[in-house]
Design a protein that fits this description.
Length: 190
């Protein structure tokens, strides 16, 4: 069976935290690929629309370009409304009967898992892998696997607020992403 890790996210913008957890999980669980899956509307937080969907995709493409096993999955951007993971994973499983899916989440999402749409059915069709994230609790009563990753205190909100304040984001996102954000003046950067 081909083993695929899915990293679902808003990626507004993508940052090194995303890349590091993806790479750690890829190697620790001997997965074949990681698919980065940007959502249309995050079910649990407000969509900011600071940049367009195609801009998030462009930044993601730049972010993953250096890793041969990192791929993009755009299924959720082709569907309108909130991107409920259960709906998405049902379709992906039908499309790829030869693949086993692992859904990667940070500890902030582990805490939120009881509120996910159809969570009891979802844990039957995908294997969750939870990674630690700063102050959040990593333990869950759901059947998830755990990966220990270096604590990365970087978030998309931190990147956005630093750009707004005119602070540098060097070494927090790939250099190509930093240059592109600067060139396009995204998130109030100059
Ligand atoms: N630094 C990090 N450490 C561990 N997990 C992370 C980290 N950053 C993001 N994740 C996980 O990656 C997934 C996608 O995250 P998302 O794209 O929402 O980024 P974010 O940094 O959490 O964004 P925001 O700050 O806007 O809420 C989520 O499961 C999240 O928990
Ligand atoms: O299906 C749900 O109810 C659900 C609730 C919250 C988050 N998710 C998914 O979890 C992933 C991480 O969310 P986010 O918004 O932190 O990027 C992303 O793929 C979301 O669509 C899914």
């Amino acid at each position: 069976m081909i083993k695929i890790g899915i990293l679902g996210g808003t990626f507004d913008p993508p940052h090194l935290g995303h890349l590091i957890i993806a790479n750690e999980v890829l190697n620790s669980f001997d997965l074949n690929e990681i698919w980065f899956m940007p959502n249309q509307e995050p079910p649990h937080k407000k969509k900011l629309n600071a940049i367009k969907d195609e801009d998030r995709v462009k930044l993601l493409k730049l972010s993953i370009s250096e890793h041969p096993n990192f791929k993009l999955e755009l299924i959720e951007l082709k569907r309108s409304g909130p991107s409920f993971t259960y709906e998405t994973m049902k379709i992906l499983k039908e499309r790829h009967p030869d693949k086993q899916f692992y859904f990667i989440i940070g500890a902030d999402m582990i805490e939120y898992l009881p509120k996910w749409r159809n969570i009891d059915q979802l844990v039957e069709i995908v294997q969750f892998i939870g990674v630690n994230r700063s102050t959040y609790n990593q333990k869950s009563s759901y059947p998830i696997l755990y990966a220990e990753v270096p604590n990365i205190e970087i978030s998309s909100s931190l990147i956005r607020s630093r750009l707004k304040e005119g602070k540098t984001i060097q070494y927090m996102v790939p250099e190509s992403v930093r240059n592109y954000i600067k060139e396009k003046n995204y998130y109030g950067s100059q």
